[in-house]
Amino acid sequence: MKFNIIKLKKISQMPDGFLDKTPIFQFILLSCLFPLWGCAASLNDILITQFKSVFTLSDFASALVQSAFYGGYFIIAIPSSLIIKKTSYKIAILIGLALYIIGCLMFYPASHMATYTMFLAAIFAIAIGLSFLETSANTYSSMIGNKNFATLRLNISQTFYPIGALLGIVLGKYLVFQEGDSLELQMSNMTIEQIHEFRLSMLEYTLQPYKYLILVLIIVLFLFLITQYPSCRAENKDNPKSESLTSTLKYLAANFRFKKGIIAQFMYVGMQVTVWSFTIRLALDLGDINERYASNFMIFSFACFFIGKFIANFLMTRFNPTKVLIIYSILGSITLAYVVLVSNFSAVYAAVFVSVLFGPCWATIYAKTLAVVDSKYTETAGAIIVMSIIGGAVMPAIQGLVSDKLGSMQFAFIVPLICFIYVGIYFWTELKQEQSKL
């Protein structure tokens, strides 16, 4: 693009699209996208708690926040991959940032109209932008350098995610949640008219974090606009014509390890989102505290997630990454079983600790799944892996439904427990696959 001011230093691109070395500034700027969608995702955890009380929702209905958010990812992932194929990763990133800004701006009318559906529409719009960002940035991060370090590079980029997630919770704690008793307790002593006015005032607060996000997004969009990026496109000398979507989908549908990775990613994202969506609720159920105080446990969760990523990156450079993930999955399953079975406040701390064990899962499953795909199908394959994020729309709704039916949010944590067990089985089968090649 003619706006390129920050030039790309001399690098060589390999026939498979990977580079001989990583351009540092471009990689750091690319990695800065990861906390941006982390912030949006963690703000959803705040909104679920706020909307449940303000709109008097069931656990299932409040979980529709995540359904709107991750449903947007699912719908737009393939279209965004087609745009990447016809243009570039950079163009897709610029489109994603612009759509993200538009989604944040929709919180202005939503906070004044005070309807749940309008908020869901704003969240869905944000997710459309994030689908462009994730479809491009995850694949791009793995490719922007030496192929041997693709998984490590993506894990490093993913380490930025919990910084944004932590910031989102902090913004929600101080800008959305207010001092005093819990919302439910406050409204129990009000008249119908007072409740109506109180709800309107509480919804006004939901706008505040998105004002700051818009400013940050504009700055990041400008930096991408003026920075030159490599194409990272595989050469197809035998057939220079791009593969059609139909032939690509047929190829991927016949690829067993790719399909297995998609299911694992679906279950992993579902597990992560369910735990984070309902940790605040769990704390409110098991302790005599308000929403602002309960949000501290999400701050602790994302701090654990951040620490867990660093530990995982260290371990995965010294030991077999698949074996590391098997151990993480076993420990995670035991921890979630504790959350389900132990009926005291220590279950909340267990729900917090399990975030340490989420660390390397997403990036490792993503890179492993993409690695079993021929390079000429990379863009579409990456988009389909991002589509597996729909697990974040499905599993929280299932957990909310289980909670509503059984009257116990704590027991409903059996849903992420089942997911973590499946993720462990996936890594175990991958290890067997690796050993069979030796």
UniProtKB/TrEMBL annotation:
It comes from the Bacteria. GO terms for cellular component: plasma membrane. It is a multi-pass membrane protein. Residues 1-435 form the Major facilitator superfamily (MFS) profile domain. Keywords: Cell membrane, Membrane, Transmembrane, Transmembrane helix. It is found in: Cell inner membrane. GO terms for molecular function: fucose:proton symporter activity. InterPro entries: Lfuc_symporter_FucP, MFS, MFS_dom, MFS_trans_sf, MFS_TsgA-like. The chain crosses the membrane at residues 24-43, 63-84, 91-108, 114-133, 154-177, 210-227, 266-287, 293-312, 324-341, 347-367, 379-398, 410-429. This is L-fucose:H+ symporter permease. It comes from Gilliamella apicola.
